[in-house]
């Protein structure tokens, strides 16, 4: 009993360490982007892993990106596209659900079973 419990704890600890390792691995590129956003273009190319620009943080990069990229317009475009996508997903999901519940077709039963099976396999 104690041996089995120790093995379970060891496996849990190893899984936790592995998950934290993956977290750090996935977050490194985001951290590098954030760090490099505060450096001049020359220092990004010359010293990409250097944490601080020799001239200090270059906050003007954010102003330049805001103006040159037309950020408010790009944000609104993304917001509109996302809104319409969600609206379409809701409409078509409701229609599919109605079809699954109200009809006795074999293809509906198979499709519903496949959907449920895919959700069950991901929840592990």
Distance between the termini: 25 Å
Strand content: under 5%
Specify Rg, calculated over alpha carbons. 25 Å
Shape: flat
> How many strands, what sense, and barrel or not for the largest sheet?
none
- List how many beta strands DSSP finds: 0
User: Helix coverage percent of residues?
Assistant: over 70%
Q: Which consecutive residue ranges, at least 5 long each, have pLDDT under 50?
A: none
Tell me the series of helices and strands, N- to C-terminal: HHHHH
Number of helices: 5
Alpha-beta classification: mainly alpha
- As an assembly, this protein is single chain
Could you explain the architecture of this structure?
- The protein is mostly helical.
- The protein has a domain at 70-124.
- 80% of the residues lie in helices and 0% in strands.
- It has five helices and no strands.
- The protein has helices at 2-36, 41-46, 60-68, 71-102, 106-122.
- The radius of gyration is 25 Å and the shape is flat.
């Amino acid at each position: 009993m104690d041996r089995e419990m120790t093995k379970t704890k060891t496996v849990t600890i190893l899984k936790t360490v592995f998950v934290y390792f993956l977290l750090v691995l996935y977050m490194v590129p985001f951290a590098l982007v954030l760090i490099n956003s505060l450096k001049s273009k020359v220092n990004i190319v010359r010293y990409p892993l250097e944490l601080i620009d020799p001239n200090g943080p270059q906050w003007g990069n954010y102003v330049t990106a805001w103006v040159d990229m037309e950020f408010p317009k790009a944000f609104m475009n993304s917001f509109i596209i996302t809104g319409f996508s969600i609206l379409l997903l809701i409409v078509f999901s409701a229609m599919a659900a109605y079809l699954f519940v109200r009809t006795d077709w074999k293809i509906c039963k198979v499709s519903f079973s496949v959907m449920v099976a895919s959700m069950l396999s991901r929840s592990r």
